[in-house]
UniProtKB/TrEMBL annotation:
Record has Secreted as a keyword: no
This protein's record includes keyword Transcription: yes
One example GO MF annotation: transcription cis-regulatory region binding
Domain HTH lacI-type: 2-58
Source superkingdom: Bacteria
Segments traversing the membrane: none
Pfam family, one: Peripla_BP_3
PANTHER family reported in the protein's UniProt record: HTH-TYPE TRANSCRIPTIONAL REGULATOR EBGR (PTHR30146:SF149), LACI-RELATED TRANSCRIPTIONAL REPRESSOR (PTHR30146)
Keyword set, alphabetical order: DNA-binding, Transcription, Transcription regulation
Name used for this protein in its record: LacI family DNA-binding transcriptional regulator
InterPro entries assigned to the protein according to its UniProt record, in alphabetical order: HTH_LacI, LacI/GalR-like_sensor, Lambda_DNA-bd_dom_sf, Peripla_BP_I
């Protein structure tokens, strides 16, 4: 393979001159004939310009989780996303710094950007904003003009659940949902409940007596299904707000002597790893948790390295994974 030295020898010029011509250095003071001769010799010798790759900056990324380790274990949704974030950071060779509410602008001064995972109150958002770092939120979209965000397409997810129940002949459709408050005591809106109610109201199928609201824990799924049974308001089909609560509902159904799906059909949400191993395997909405975690790192990297000013708000689609927990009653 020809080298710059070979071209310089043929052209009768210095190696530096050849290098500057081949790299289109406009500040080079050389005759056009010389430049043309160098280019022609380079083509004749089939010289290939080596493009030097820029060394990728090793970023330091802060990770701020709004929930406790205990809450993470009770609902693996956030656990799966956090692990995906950490895996992506490791793959890219980036350093991770755990960030908490006790941090200040000084203590996070060395980080290049922050990933926020969970639900956040107004006071939390103010703290994050005060850190003045490129930030991406996962599962929250507090200010689409200030922060990047990645959220789930709850509307289409819930519509797919209701459609599937109706396609299988169900008209008595209920919900075991959840209600949380943020750190300021403000009630957090659960879009799943809102979209569920709207989807059933369009079909004149909504009945409030089939709806029970608790917390996002297995014990609540267990307790609330038993309440529906005791109150004689047990629907034929039940949407449960997450798979952990669905596991609790499964246990309650077993204790009550109810067969799934013969006596009651159940659809969960999240598609946590053990959903397919439940008996019967749980039909549930898959959230692409690994993608959400990985893409959050990519968004943050892009904003840091390219200086993007416009915020990006990503809505991630879902997929209904049909297994064996829904019965066709036509």
């Amino acid at each position: 393979m020809a080298t710059i030295k070979d071209i310089a020898a043929r052209a009768g010029v210095s190696i530096a001159t050849v290098s500057r011509v081949l790299n289109h250095d406009e500040t080079l003071n050389a005759q056009e004939e010389t430049k043309q001769r160098i280019m022609e010799i380079a083509e004749e010798l089939e010289y290939e310009v080596r493009v030097q790759k820029k060394r990728k900056k090793k970023l330091k990324i802060g990770v701020f989780c709004s929930y406790s380790p205990k809450e993470e274990l009770e609902d693996p949704y956030y656990l799966c996303i956090r692990l995906a974030i950490e895996k992506k950071l490791e793959e890219e060779g980036y350093r991770k710094q755990s960030v908490t509410l006790n941090d200040t602008a000084d203590s996070v001064g060395s980080v290049d950007g922050i990933v926020c995972l969970g639900t956040f109150s107004k006071s939390h958002i103010e703290i994050v904003s005060g850190w003045d770092k490129p930030t991406v939120f996962i599962d929250a979209n507090p200010n689409p003009l200030q922060f990047d965000s990645i959220v789930v397409d709850f509307k289409n997810a819930v519509n797919s659940i209701v459609d599937y129940f109706v396609e299988n002949g169900h008209t008595k459709i209920g919900l075991i949902g959840a209600l949380d408050c943020d750190q300021d005591g403000e009630e957090l809106q659960d879009l799943r409940k809102d979209y569920f109610q709207k989807a059933l109201e369009k079909r004149n199928l909504y009945h409030s007596e089939y709806v029970k609201i608790g917390s996002y824990h297995a014990k609540d799924g267990y307790t609330l299904l038993k309440q529906l049974y005791d109150e004689k308001h047990l629907p034929t089909a039940l949407f449960v707000a997450n798979d952990s609560m669905a596991a609790g509902a499964y246990k309650a159904a077993y204790e009550l002597g109810l067969s799934i799906p013969d006596d009651i059909s159940i659809i969960g949400f999240n598609d946590i790893p053990n959903a397919k191993y439940m008996i019967p395997p749980l039909t549930t909405v898959r959230l692409y948790m690994e993608f959400m975690g990985e893409y959050a790192v990519q968004l943050l990297e892009e904003r840091i390295t390219q200086g993007r000013d416009i915020c990006v708000n990503v809505v991630v689609p879902t997929k209904l994974y049909v297994r064996d927990s829904v019965r066709n009653i036509f």
